[in-house]
Write a structure and sequence with these properties.
With about 250 residues, this protein is an alpha+beta fold. It folds into 2 domains: about 15-155, Glutaredoxin (3-Layer(aba) Sandwich); about 175-245, Antioxidant, Horf6, Chain A, domain 2, CATH 3.30.1020. It is built from 6 helices and 12 strands. The protein has helices at about 50-60, 60-65, 80-90, 115-120, 160-175, 195-205, and strands at about 15-20, 25-30, 35-40, 70-75, 95, 100, 105-110, 135-140, 145-150, 190, 210-215, 215-220. Strands 7-4-3-8-9 form a 5-stranded mixed sheet. A 3-stranded antiparallel sheet has the order 10-12-11, with no helix packed on it. The longest helix has 17 residues, at about 160-175. The chain is elongated. The structure holds benzoic acid (BEZ). The site of benzoic acid (BEZ) has 8 residues, from helix 1.
């Protein structure tokens, strides 16, 4: 019988492995201590959706670096296939104004499927030879923080990957959470109060920077003078400030 698919879960240490890559050998996560990593898999080299994803990721590499984050790709292909594909991308492919794109992040050779299996990237219902499109967000301490899985037919949104990374880092730094459809600059959510006392205190906290829609839903304003949740000002929000936590 097939082995069940195992994958690291959010909060788990990222499983360690050593591998050959297009940028030389890596010892993961040891070599990346102190940096965040986006570890992503794709079904195969020389495939169209993967090509658009690689070009887009490569063109954003410096934006990820600015967030102390390195990219690492993987497919169940040989080093020769990786090198030939990346050379073709650089020399021949023009896509959405991207041209001459060099993929400078490491792409793991995983012909043995060892790494793909370690990370649950090989999902037999989809394919027994090609990885699904997995994305692991691994923090600077080597802990898995977010996992995304997409099927072969759907290309990923690299702006969404960057948005999630930005939100995770902000949540860590500032002890906040981010609401639906949050983007940098939008107001953020204060964590729920731990007691009735702190709920009351918070609702009554009519500071410049904090407004509450109810005792459990308080926002911190990010832009002075800008709209609150949904773009309205605090004064426009029905019930804001007046929750009567007596
Ligand atoms: C692609 O990357 O284009 C692709 C790969 C595997 C199956 C379907 C599409």
């Amino acid at each position: 019988m097939d082995q069940p698919v195992r994958l690291p879960l959010i909060g788990d240490p990222a499983p360690a492995f050593k591998a050959r890559t297009t940028q030389g050998p890596i010892d993961f996560p040891k070599d990346y201590e102190g940096k965040w990593v986006i570890l992503f898999s794709h079904p195969a080299d020389f495939t169209p959706v993967c090509t658009t994803e690689f070009m887009t990721f490569a063109s954003m590499q410096e934006e990820f670096r600015a967030l102390n984050t390195e990219l690492i790709g993987l497919s169940i292909d040989s080093m020769y296939a990786h090198i030939a594909w990346l050379r073709t991308i650089k020399e021949k492919i023009e896509y959405k104004h991207m041209k001459g794109i060099e993929v400078n992040f490491p792409v793991i050779e995983d012909i043995t499927m060892d790494v793909a299996k370690l990370y649950g990237m090989l999902q037999p219902g989809a394919s027994s030879t090609q990885a699904v499109r997995a994305v692991f967000f691994i923090d600077a301490k080597g802990i898995v923080r977010t996992i995304m899985y997409y099927p072969a037919a759907v290309g990923r949104n690299m702006e969404e990957i960057k948005r999630v990374l930005t939100a995770l880092q902000k949540a860590d730094r500032e002890g906040i959470a981010t609401p639906a459809n949050w983007k940098p600059g939008d107001d953020v959510i204060l964590p729920p109060p731990g007691s009735c006392g702190s709920a009351k205190e918070r609702v009554e906290q009519h500071g410049e920077d904090v407004y509450c829609l109810d005792w459990f839903l308080c926002f911190r304003r990010e832009k002075r003078g800008a709209g609150g949740a949904g773009g309205s000002s605090t004064h426009d929000l029905p019930g804001a400030h007046g929750m009567g936590m007596k």
